[in-house]
Each structure stands twice: as structure tokens, then as C-alpha cells.
Amino acid sequence: MNELSESPHEADPTELYPKGSDPREALKAWHFMLGLSVFVLVWLRLLVARMAGSDPLTEPDLPKWQKSSAKFMHFALYFLMIGMPLGGWLLLGAAGKPIPFFGLELPALVGESKSLATLIKEIHEVGGTVGYFLIGFHAAATLLHHYVLRDNTLRRIVPNQN
To answer: Distance between CA 158 and CA 63 in Å, rounded?
Structure first.
């Protein structure tokens, strides 16, 4: 517990697992592996979407500003799903750390550089915060379309349910 905390519930989460502890290192390894799994799966998703053809139409048709907003949101989410794991991979390489992936060790994409690692870490952390807001806004917009506007936006993601 830090000096500003009144109760254990207000403790800094990083105090739960001190740097170098086995649980913290295990959580970091899972973070890396799950992030890289997202990187692989998003490319598979893009390939499947390309092969499946065009998306079903939204009924009733959306105003132009909503279509534009949806395109931007999906672009931003895909950018994060590709950029964040790639940034993490670059960060580990620049920090000179191993890049674990379910029993494999992936090669570093860049040489060791403390200044580059610091820069990538800052970008990665900001990207994570931006990602939380984008995901929340995306989920809220989907629920708005389904429960308030009552269009088929949410049902469009389920195959053969349009």
C-alpha cells in the first residue's frame, strides 16, 4: 500500500506483483502471446472477409455520416489490432527481450535500442488507452443501433442471420 492509500482497495495495481516476480512475468508473457495471437487472427479475419465478398446491407439504410463514421471506426479498430501487437513486438526487440509465442521465440524486428524502446513503449501505452475508448464507443454504437434504432447492424455480423 502506498502512503496515499487509506485501504488495501486503493493500492496501486503494480504493487500486487512486484517487478521480476514469477506471477508478473507470467502475466507479461501471456500479454505478449495473446497480443501476437490477435495479430495473426486479424489477418485471418481480413482474408476470410475478402473471400466472403461484400457485407450485407444495413436495413434501413444509414445516413451518410453514420456510414462514414462506421468506416472510420472499423479502420481505427483494425489499425489498432494490427498496430498494437506489432508495436509490442517492436518494443520487445528494441528492449532486447525475448519475444515468446506459445513455446516459440520469435525474432526481433529491430535491433536493441533503449531510446527506441522508450518511444515505442509510450506509443504502445497511448494506443492502449485510445483502444479502450474506441472499443467502448463501438460497443455503445452497436447497442444503440440494435436497441434504439432497431436496425440490423448487430445481426449483420452473424452469418445467415440477416
So the answer is: 23
